[in-house]
Amino acid sequence: MLRYIVRRLLQGIVVIFLISFMTFGLMHLAPGDPIHLLTGQNNARLTPEQLAGIRAHWGLDKPFHEQYLTWLSNALRGDFGTSLIRRGVPVTEMVNEAAVVTIKLNVISWLVALGIALPVGMIAALRRNSRFDYFTMLGATFGVALPSFWVGLMLIVLFASVVQILPSSGLTSWKSYVMPVFVLALDQAAVYARLMRSSTLDVMTQDYVSVARAKGLAEFRIVLRHVARNALLPIVTIIGLRFSFILSGTIIVEQVFGLPGLGRMFLDSVLRQDYQVVQAIVFLFAVVVVISNLITDLAYAYIDPRIRID
Amino acid sequence: MPEAKDRTEPQPATASRPVAAMSTLAGAEHRQRSEWRRSWNRFARYRPALFGLGFVSVLLLFALLPAVFAPHSPTEIFPGTRNSPPSSDFWLGVDNAGRDMLSRIIFGTRTALIVGVFATGISILIGMIIGSIAGYFGGWTDALLSRIVDTVMAFPILALLVVLASVLGPSIATITIIIGTTFWTGYARVVRADMLSVRERDFVLAARSIGVRTPRLIVRHMLPNILGPVIVLATLGIGGIIITEAALSFLGLGVQPPTSSWGRSLSEARPHIIRYPHLAIAPGVMITLTVLAFNVIGDGLRDALDPRQQE
Q1: For B285, left (φ over 0), alpha (ψ -120 to 50), or beta?
Q2: Fewer Cβ neighbours under 10 Å: the N or C end of chain B?
Q3: Contact A233, A299 (CB under 8 A)
Q4: Is the dihedral of CA B223, B226, B232, B236 positive or negative?
Q5: CB B88: neighbour CB atoms within 10 A?
């Protein structure tokens, strides 16, 4: 087991390294010279010597691999440089501030999604072909197909314009989280509910469920002890895999609702070529994804002792 | 219980496909045809899939002959009609620039389908190549390629697309190519896993023993045996790609004006959403229905082509 953990950790580090290298390379391929961002309107008035001085100060005169190694060694010590747009503000500070919003948004919507989807999916499976099953699965099928940005716009029309009970944009109070959380949770809940239903149906046909029934165990006991625990297995894997969707989801939702989180900061920074910030955010997410995948695998092995990973 | 019924049926996938490869035999051809018929019956039993097929056919007509169905040109500006609600001249109203919304929706079908189909094609191609090489050769080749797959999967997809689109300059061609080159990991995984099991089958050994070269063995003998899951995955994936195109266009990083795209129409409607909400309804409904249609076709195909693997 320990060997497995160490091996997965090393693989994860390779993945993080590759991702940071890819991002760094991509941002360097971008058209336009970051020097223009640094000097702004004064560009024309600066002498070539002054420009060269600014380049040297930011390390932009060095070859690509040297720039990357400098960045990497700083990043490993937690120093992601300073923003090119918001001059002098450390990237770490900006990211920390925005991360609070994004973490709140994602953790709440994740809990909401699981809290709704797991019981709903299980009940749908237990009452297969009932009206409840039919309507919740119809809802889930639509939930997967609905584009989150459109749902967001429609909610804004409904709750910020028709009935004015929620703010349409920005972060003012807890109310600002209601619609974004709903939008993020909808998509996830749809996926989890469908999965929970089919996974429960699978488990129901297993011999040990028939045995439990034959023993005369109460139905709720069978469901909770034998069915629910085993049906959760595939969900655990999917939750881990879906971690890489989180930034994707928050980019859109934070944009639609104007929330000052990582997703919006990422989009702004890409469009304005503030590549220090872009690199820091992508690096952070790669780390989160790799760690969550590792935890998923370990949780899987822990919940289901039958799985021998090595 | 449809599942139970499927299980009692003979497994056509394992029994007849290697034979079907030698389709000059009359008996084999007959058996192949009835296999298709059985698949079609399984597909048609799932009625939402038939709805999906009908809807996608309409979309195909729109995409191929938009000018026949659109009442106006998608770029023609009608002065004095900006933001007007649906009327007999403009069934879905007029957008903020004064263009007919219905015509823009119909022409937008073309954008959605072009990106959906071509990006899927690119990802299938890349995924098949990487997956079959990893699955067939195994060992360190597999380890290396699997690490690359892990890396692309760990990358937040939309973040990667946003970076690529802004670096390469957004257009319908770049969008198609960048989506195609980032969505292939699912295919690579499925093809790799299936290649690992197909590799052990007797017909592969037989083909190898009569001297079939490796590339031909992979392409002509092994890949046809794993097409079912790939087709299912592709159909289920098109919806996701269409949403992604719409999302990028919504963020301003997709197709550029004056090309119509449903995501673009939503992005143009957004600043005026409180005063003119009707402009945001039709594009969203079209995206939802299109994605829904492809998803239910995919579900039907899964029942038809891959009866062992029910969701």
Answers
A1: alpha
A2: N
A3: no
A4: negative
A5: 5
Chain B nearest CA to A157, separation (Å): 6
- Which structure tokens are listed for B65? 């002959």
Provide the pLDDT confidence category of residue B3 given band limits of 50, 70 and 90: very low
Q: Is A166 on the interface with B (CB under 8 A)?
A: no
pLDDT tops 70 at residue A309: no
**Report field, pTM of the whole predicted structure over 0.90:** no
Alpha carbons A154 and B277: distance in angstroms, whole number: 8
Interface of A with B in 39-98 (CB under 8 A): none
Closest Cα to residue B201, out of B17, B39, B36? Answer: B17
**Cis previous bond, B258, omega within 30:** yes
Is the CB of A142 less than 8 angstroms away from the CB of B288?
A: yes
A187 exposed, middle or buried (CB, 10 Å; 0-12, 13-18, 19+)? buried
- Nearest residue on chain B to A13, judged by CA atoms? B151
Enumerate the residues of chain B whose CB falls inside 8 A of the CB of residue A22: 151, 155
DSSP-derived 3-state class of residue A267? helix
How many angstroms away from the CA of A258 is the closest CA of chain B? 12
pLDDT for position A216:
82
Residue A85 exposed, middle or buried by CB count within 10 Å (0-12, 13-18, 19+)? middle
The residues, any chain, with a CB within 8 Å of residue B295's CB and separated by 6 or more, are: A141, A144, A145, B52, B236, B239
Cα separation, A47 vs A43, in Å, equals: 9
Instruction: For residue B293, give the chain A residue with the closest CA.
Output: A145
How many contacts, defined by CB atoms under 8 Å, are there between A and B?
132
Contact B266 A153 (CB under 8 A): yes
**Which residue does chain A place closest to B252, by CA atoms?**
A271
The first and second tokens of residue B174, run together, are 């770049």
A211 at B interface, C-beta within 8 A? no
The answer to whether A161 contacts B277, with C-beta atoms less than 8 Å apart, is yes
Q: What is the 3-state secondary structure (H, E, C) of chain B?
A: CHHHHHHHCCCHHHHCHHHHCCCCCHHHHHHHHHHHHHHHHHHHHCHHHHHHHHHHHHHHHHHHCHHHHCCCCCCCCCCCCCCCCCCCCCCCCECCCCCEHHHHHHHHHHHHHHHHHHHHHHHHHHHHHHHHHHHHHCHHHHHHHHHHHHHHHHCCHHHHHHHHHHHHCCCHHHHHHHHHCCCCHHHHHHHHHHHHHHCCCHHHHHHHHCCCCHHHHHHHHHHHHHHHHHHHHHHHHHHHHHHHHHHHHHCCCCCCCCCCCHHHHHHHHHHHCCCCHHHHHHHHHHHHHHHHHHHHHHHHHHHHHCCCCCC
A9 in reach of chain B (CB within 8 A): no
Q: How many Cβ atoms sit within 10 Å of the Cβ of residue A232?
A: 18
Nearest to B111 by CA among B224, B14, B241, B229: B241
Q: What are phi and psi of A82, to 5 degrees?
A: -115, 155
> What does pLDDT average to over chain B?
83
How many angstroms separate the CA atoms of A249 and A44, rounded?
Answer: 41
Cα(B288)–Cα(B283) distance, integer angstroms = 9
Q: pLDDT digits over B78-135, tens only? A: 887 787 888 887 888 888 888 888 989 999 999 999 999 999 999 999 999 999 999 9
- Check CB contact under 8 Å for A147 and B246: yes
